[in-house]
Amino acid sequence: MTTDETESAGSTMIPGLAAIGLFIVMAVAFVQASFGEPVLFPEGESIVAHIGYALFDLQNDMGTIASEGFLAAFLIIAIGLDVAVDSAIFLAKREEGGSIVSAIADGGWESPADAPDATADTQPLSDGGDK
Amino acid sequence: MVPPEYYLLLSAAVFCIGLFGVLTRKNALYFLMSVELMLNAANINLIAFSLFWGNLTGQTFALFVIALAAAEVAIGIGIILVLYRNFGTVSVTDATTMRW
């Protein structure tokens, strides 16, 4: 898509060295760190079920696996995803000749009456514009 | 159990690959993919320490990070569409103006 995709070796040398240097620093820190004894999950408990309980903040069902309630975060991220979908649709719209053309419009017209053959075609445009 | 150092090294490697992509790529799609790599490096850490400490908070939080990444991709691809429509390219270096 871009015409200048091939970067020269010199332009990638410094970022490459920076990334490798950062990896070396992190690797040294991780190898030297001590993490103590692992606790692990108790045997026979369903982890997926407990994640569900944690997502909906069902404290009574949480059982023996430690966790916190995430109901507020769940609702906030749900709204965030809705906003993202709406934003993506808004950004994907384009205007051609003054009319908005959208991926989910009725064939690209703002209303069925704007279609050139609106009088000839009596079928409702409820199938996303596919006739 | 696999020691947490191995997970951390894997995570650091994935993060650095993503960082390298962010620093060098000009194509917005590659840029987006590199950011995803960095987010998934964080996910590896969250899940590894969730297992290590026997606490589900990390795994639950990783789900939120995945949802956040999905939202980011949705908006990112929308922006890339607009970028291509208005500039004829998806190079992040060509879009130097806020208006066209």
TrEMBL record, chain A:
The keyword Transmembrane helix applies. The keyword Membrane applies. Residues 112-122 have a biased composition (Low complexity). Residues 108-131 are annotated as: Disordered. The chain crosses the membrane at residues 12-35, 70-92. Keywords: Membrane, Transmembrane, Transmembrane helix. This is Proton-conducting membrane transporter. It comes from Natronocalculus amylovorans.
